[in-house]
């Protein structure tokens, strides 16, 4: 099959465009990485693109990692991610399994009721009043975990995937006397590891990155998750907690590189896990898309 | 009546046969009842003069008063305009972009290059919005990256985030940067679902690649596009306010303040006008829902695709 000149030109232009995309996507991250490794004074004086660190130093990282707010932020976020994701999985798996069983008479009405909540909700104020005042979950990490226990979107993806499992396999297990719980946890779940991996990724990253619920419900500073600490530092510009004992000029200089180091410290875990789970989530999204 | 009791006995039989399933489903159903449906019921305070002391039932009924107050308020047109404009820009630029990317990626012949581009393009989606906004705030400062680039093109440097005129651009452009790659996955999935025989037949008939894209590829993903478009339109009024809260400041309220941020400020962060803000939130949800139904109908007529 010969390609015409036009098609070859297009192919070349496309390749250039895609390369441009890679650059635009990666450059901000590179900039942050370089800035985090740079000496603050030189950084402040620098103008323009930052293709390499200026005066490589780990000073900023040292400051960041010894900041008690960052450490407690990390601790809180890890708790939320681990406990939260585990509970997410438990509830989503239960929901996906029961709603995929054709023998369950209520499955369609319940599914409809769930989908409806994706399009219409009471608003943030009634939810806030419920969680803070009625359920008294305010100012505790549970307020960040329980309200988001099941994502309807994820539930649908998992249900679609569970529905694909061969019924005869499960039927023969039932004949052998296996109860539903056993079938779910011993047969269905092991067979669905790719989807579950996707769920871990989606829920996990969701918890890691979440900050708004914390703003709504958490008053106690040492319950702040990492993103909230980040927000203080990055957007409200208060690197004060890290720079006690420095002069005003020093403070501003220290601030520059420290901000970037903070960003790196908060984002590196995700960037590390990403390559491992990448192949799973592409598949997961596709399952959700095609079989809808 | 007989119909109903017949249904109930069917249900009872189903329960007896599938006890385990019913109990397993219970926690899930409870979750949705408590955390999704209870707040919907709680939205009734939009029609009352809610006071925490009196509770929902004890508070006085005021009917549509809050809605009237809202529509007549000083800020109504501003936040409505901002909500619609921001959503519209997002839709106009942000919706086609992933589709375009998917189509272009589909044309790449070098498999490894294609996968590299894809993998890299997904990364921004996983970065937290706080970090992204932190980067934006930093790059938008007087001597930040954006101003440097503006300088290369001969422009003047300025505090970008303090000028209302820049807000929509910064908001939309950064949203595209973050979501372009990840959003394209679903279109790539749809593209891979197109029957390759169609392309073979087209090649035999001597159709150029361009014609093939126009006649085979695009029609192949129209259903997916329409469904996602409907979903987008149904969320028009709820325009991602977490990002706005992180990026905005009183200087740019003129273009940045939207319904959700207004509700947040007046209901939680600055004052506690619960009833009023619930009414505003309800207004938003109802419009969203109406838009969703409307978009669905329109799509049914135009492209024979519907969500429900």
Automatic annotation (TrEMBL), chain B:
The entry's keywords: Membrane, Transmembrane, Transmembrane helix, Transport
Compartment annotation: Cell membrane; Membrane
Residue spans crossing the bilayer: 20-38, 84-105, 117-137, 213-233
Membrane topology: Multi-pass membrane protein
InterPro entries to which the protein is assigned, alphabetical: MetI-like, MetI-like_sf
UniProt keyword annotation of Iron present: no
Residue ranges of domain ABC transmembrane type-1 in the record: 80-295
PANTHER family with a match to the protein in the record: POLYGALACTURONAN_RHAMNOGALACTURONAN TRANSPORT SYSTEM PERMEASE PROTEIN YTEP (PTHR43496:SF1), PROTEIN LPLB (PTHR43496)
Annotated family: Belongs to the binding-protein-dependent transport system permease family.
Record-given protein name: Sugar ABC transporter permease
Organism: Paenibacillus taichungensis
Upper lineage: Bacteria, Bacillati, Bacillota, Bacilli, Bacillales
